[in-house]
Amino acid sequence: PVDLAQAAIGPGMAVYTRYAGVLDAEGNPVTVREALALINQVLDEALAEQEGDFDPDTRWALAWFEQFGFGEGEFGVAETLSKAKNTSVEGLVEAGILESRRGKVRLLKPEELPGDWDPVRDGRFTYWEAVHQLVRRLETGGEMAAADLLAKLGSRGDTARELAYRLYALCERKGWSKEALSYNALVQSWPEIARLSQEGKAPAQTELF
User: Fold this and answer.
1) What is the pTM of this model?
2) Angle between the N-to-C axes of helices 32-48 and 157-174, in degrees from 0 to 180, rounded to the nearest 10
3) How many domains, the chain?
4) What is the Cα–Cα distance from 97 to 64, expressed in whole angstroms?
């Protein structure tokens, strides 16, 4: 995500510095800080357009996370949002990404997710859980542990990476440094994790022939 932000900032600032002065809609000078904020806003909007690739549970979790992070929120608010995202609180609990009790709900943190999760056997797979399981594996077992899981995700890994980018951008905008660090670490490590996941599959493929 850091690389993505830098890639967007470069061309954006090139346009900004091309002119002696840049004015906003009201005719006031746009400062460098304001220009950077606008660039990041456009980047965030571009990432938001990728949400169509996500499953309904993940779209709900993303919208909820933007409001509450991993904190608690009212059940009624969660239920209303679930209808808008074509899912349900009960289904989200069943998917293993949400806790609901005493009129409150909250998203489970990576460290609260089951250590034996298998995306192939999950009857209600979500990209949300995939990303946070990868975060959990990376933080507790390193790149090799994350690679083992990425290999099981197969082609769904690309969409999981999109979600990690989206979550990083969201946390960066919100100033949630701890969460941003986790998502950034995952995407920064992704090339090596992907390489290791392919290496891990190679022997098994050889044995088939």
Assistant:
1) 0.75
2) 150
3) 3
4) 12
